[in-house]
Design goal:
This protein is α/β, with parallel strands linked by helices. It is built from 16 helices and twelve strands.
């Protein structure tokens, strides 16, 4: 029996001319591109916590969204029915993957043992639904931020007993991810940071966080989990200053503690902008280090200073992101996870479909435009020419580390005064505009 009868069949692809709000305009999951379907290229995933645990609440009021499957007295039975509805949605929206926190899918019990028992029941149920639908798990993670015990962090908590509890919770979440065939496991330090340095030993907390991640690496080897570990940076909110501020600080942390060979980055658009960066910047920093792993596909509101987790339909922003992702060789075992939620007044189940259709169409269109930009080569050639002086002569020796200040001084003294060349930013911005104009599609 359908739990979402108002959307009776999978969302069809009807092309750009379609006016059907429950149809894809640019995302045809079966379209073949370079020997792979568009679905295989984009690897869309649904975030369980927003799509099926989000209620429309905000700091100024309780939830506005009420779903029929949320009624009942037994929390485990409700969780199973909720998961049934979720997998019906995954199938109808034609998403090949999903993602979850442990506490999203299974209710927390009165003890860790009871919580683990609940999680076991829901993981078994999820495994049956995955088998029946073909939907796969992109990644799992543990919620180490909602319960009051984590008000001062989990791995960075000043209380060792809370550190131990968090380790036990991550151990179980990793095992659940393995059981469901998850291709990645994400660490998001929602409260791994500080509110004030007056009561904080910063170095000790960072040492503890590193020790926690090393333990996770060891446990993955022990249980045979071969998925990719991912760090998801965020600069603030809920913690005033979080240790995983952005990709660059994350890389420095991982290299400082000898963890760089085990982790890549799950980059969220809204987190990038909260850190004062663009989405593309964070992708490029991760890619330059060979640590680009996956994407949380959302956006923020530039007029608001917090993590609004909106669906992203900004074609220019997504095109630039896709150019960088494609140049980096793609996302590997990662994907595009819609870590995005409905707006507070969007209370109908159809709104959940409209939101994901828009996000999937926007990324599909951006992917196609990015391929055209890269195939044309104009942008790449401009950048290549701008750095051409490093391809030969003493420029090549600079990059090879085969020259020093003394020789470079001799070259500078014997050469004419160098003349700067235009960076042509406005020309390049117009070039991107020409690709994103409707005439291309």
């Amino acid at each position: 029996m359908s739990l979402i009868p108002s959307v009776p069949s999978p969302i069809p692809y009807e092309g750009p001319a379609s006016l059907n709000p429950l149809a894809f305009k640019f995302y045809d999951p079966t379209e073949m591109i370079d020997g792979r379907t568009l679905s295989e290229h984009l690897r869309f995933s649904i975030a369980y916590w927003h799509a099926f645990r989000g209620t429309g609440s905000d700091p100024f009021g309780p939830g506005t969204i009420v779903r029929p499957w949320e009624s009942g007295s037994d929390p485990v039975s409700i969780a199973k029915k909720r998961m049934d509805a979720a997998f019906e949605f995954f199938e109808k929206i034609r998403a090949p993957f999903w993602c979850f926190h442990d506490r999203d899918i299974a209710p927390e019990g009165s003890s860790l043992a009871e919580s683990n028992k609940h999680l076991d029941a829901l993981v078994a149920h999820g495994g049956e639904l995955q088998k029946a639908t073909g939907v796969k798990l992109l990644w799992g993670t543990a919620n180490l931020f909602s319960n009051p015990r984590y008000m001062c962090g989990a791995a960075t908590n000043p209380d060792a007993s809370i550190f131990a509890y968090a380790a036990a919770q991550v151990k179980k979440a990793m095992e659940a991810t393995l059981e469901l065939g998850g291709e990645n496991y994400v660490f998001w330090g929602g409260r791994e940071g500080y509110e004030t340095l007056l009561n904080t030993n910063l170095k000790r907390e960072q040492d503890h966080l590193a020790a926690f991640l090393h333990m996770a690496v060891d446990h993955a080897k022990a249980i045979g989990f071969r998925g990719q570990f991912l760090i998801e940076p965020k600069p603030k909110e809920p913690t005033k200053h979080q240790y995983d501020f952005d990709v660059a600080s994350g890389i420095a942390f991982l290299r400082t503690y000898g963890l760089e060979g085990h982790f890549k980055f799950n980059i969220e658009t809204n987190h990038a902008t909260l850190a004062g960066h663009t989405f593309q910047h964070e992708i490029e920093v991760a890619a330059a280090a060979g640590m680009l792993g996956s994407i949380d596909a959302n956006s923020g509101d530039p007029l608001l200073g917090w993590d609004t987790d909106q669906f992203n339909t900004d074609i220019r922003e997504l095109t630039l992101a896709m150019v960088s992702i494609l140049k980096a060789g793609g996302l590997g075992s990662g994907g595009l996870n819609f870590d995005a939620k409905l707006r507070r007044p969007s209370i109908d189940i159809e709104d959940l479909f409209y939101a994901h259709i828009g996000g999937m169409d926007a990324y599909a269109l951006a992917f196609k435009i990015a391929r055209k930009i890269l195939a044309d080569g104009t942008l790449d050639e401009f950048v290549r020419q701008r750095y051409a002086s490093y391809d030969t002569g003493f420029g090549q020796r600079i990059e090879a580390g085969a020259i020093g200040f003394r020789e470079l001084e001799e070259i500078a003294l014997g050469a004419p005064e160098p003349q700067p060349a235009s960076g042509r930013q406005e020309y390049l911005e117009n070039l991107i505009l020409s690709y994103t104009a409707p005439r291309h599609f």
